[in-house]
## 1
Amino acid sequence: MLLAPAGRGALDDAVRILADGADPVAAASALRRSHSPELTAAALTQASLRRRAEAKFGADAAVMYFTPHGLEQATRPEVAAHRAARIGAAGISAAGVGPGVLDVCCGIGGDLLALARAGCAVDALDLDPLTMEIARANVAALGLSSLVTVRTADAAAAGPAGYDLLFADPARRGARGRTFDPMAYSPAWPVVLDLVARARAACLKTAPGIPYEFIPEGAEAEWVSYRGEVKEAAIWTGMGTGGRRATLLPSGATLTASGAEAETGPVSRYLYEPDGAAVRAHLVAEVAALVSGHLVDPRIAYITGDRLVPTPWAACYEVTDVMPFSLKRLRAALRERGVGTVTIKKRGSAVDVERLRKDLRLSGNESVVIVLTRIEDRPFALLCQPVTSQKG
Ligand SMILES: C[S@@+](CC[C@H](N)C(=O)[O-])C[C@H]1O[C@@H](n2cnc3c(N)ncnc32)[C@H](O)[C@@H]1O
């Protein structure tokens, strides 16, 4: 409805009226003067989705189309661009031609737009006709129609032979909300694996918490974080290095398993909190080697060391106090130091952070970072000051 000329006019009007600061009721009555009730409702919904999408898609949001689920599930452009650049640079296509990619769950197009911008020729499909129409409109709006075809189809019936790479980003949201079980993805994991088995190369986007046993033998699993937050795991077959990888965006710093083994030892002057991508990829020993540190406990992803080594792979804190955890003792220590503001971090601790915050009854002008952890199976609290933060 919004793609017809009358719809585009209504959407332009809705965007302008909302940008002028009108509240939704005033905007609706202004739009109703020149547009039908259906067009008014659709235009207002789309205009507010565009506003919401700016945080993810930046300036492109102003010309794109969205559904609420499509926007939520779309890959962040920086992450999609990283993946597309890897595919573009992998040398998996004939010389001088960009790779041919089959995107079997294209959604509103977050990944396919980045793939086309990286020079890939993309055939895309989605089971949902409305979502597919929106992807097609986004391709046109961003001037990429010469590189992309989009159609409605079920991934299960797709033929990945003839493409350089299969890309799949299955829906992780079912009728009952978000799912963490790959068997409940749509399409389900066995369908995706069957496509992978028939593809020359493949990239599967999954949730960061994908159980290791779901990663196909010989594949590379890459955990990607953006500004310190782990966004996804991408599983690569037919390209990539195999094994585990962690990548930080926007910097693009990347780390692979080196076989390093981390020693365990006492808490030293500095505490390093590794990026979640390195933790998920089981690369904490590699991060420890980068900062010449050791682990506080063999099962906990905190690194400690005597040297301050700035690294994008970990936030660093200077440790001022180490004490066995007890509410009374912690409260007394904070009172003595005049601490009124705390940031509480925990790994390997069952303490309820919000309850603890209340129970501490803080007052004062100072601030500290409290790290709750377990050392040799005993709960400990570390008081720290931030030295460097880690922003990817
Ligand atoms: C996570 S979204 C994809 C997001 C997309 N990569 C992006 O960045 O915008 C998953 C999409 O898969 C589609 N889907 C679910 N089951 C499917 C199937 N069997 N065949 C094709 N598409 C399917 C859903 O309609 C949804 O749009």
Note: The chain has a mean pLDDT of 93.
## 2
Amino acid sequence: MDVTQAVTSRRSIRHFLDKPVDPAVLKQVLETARRSPSGGNTQPWNAIVLTGQPLADFTAEMKRRVAAAPKGGETEYDIYPEGLEGRHERERVGVGESMYGALEIAREDKAARIGQMMRNFDSFGAPVQLFTYTRKYMGPPQWSDMGMWLQTIMLLLREAGLDSCPQEIWAQWGLDVKELLGIDDAHIFFCGMAIGHRDPAHAVNRFDVSRASLDETVEWRGFGG
Ligand SMILES: Cc1cc2nc3c(=O)[nH]c(=O)nc-3n(C[C@H](O)[C@H](O)[C@H](O)COP(=O)(O)O)c2cc1C
């Protein structure tokens, strides 16, 4: 698999097969992802990886807490900025509509929509979760470094025949996540990442996810033509 294939075959997987992940492969992916770039080589990323009983225990307790505070617990950052608009808001709404459309869940069927959203807390059936965090004093440049590291991991997972879904939904209960994982208050939780093998047949893994055109995002100057 070349880089282009890794990029184009990666998608957020929301239904995983019941198939374990080889720990040696996962370790090699994280080992290689250490080569991700970061401003000043600060490498602001940290992660805790869970599988098996520790993941089952974490999942059970988080689901209890989510049920008790369904609108979210205490959070440390806003997942989306206030006033998200234009193409950003259009795409945010659009991907949800495409997903529910593929699952044949109607707009009015709130219970089914919530049911699908709750699948996040089962890691969509993935056997592994990678929870990421950084020091609280890190700013936007370091958060972008975290993103590069996460994408590096996701692409290396593709090369290893594995799939992923980054999950910031956990951050809506970020303080609960930190408490259960033993992450101290000098740090801020960023997101989870479900890791496993995709179910290629499942509709939730097959719908088209749109992207803004280059014309909307990139301006070319001095290239002629
Ligand atoms: C940092 C980050 C957090 C995300 N959090 C969630 C999440 O909590 N639940 C979810 O279903 N998808 C989540 N996604 C997946 C996005 O919805 C997805 O990347 C986007 O719609 C583009 O689709 P694709 O990844 O399939 O190409 C997240 C993606 C990123 C990069």
Note: The chain has a mean pLDDT of 97.
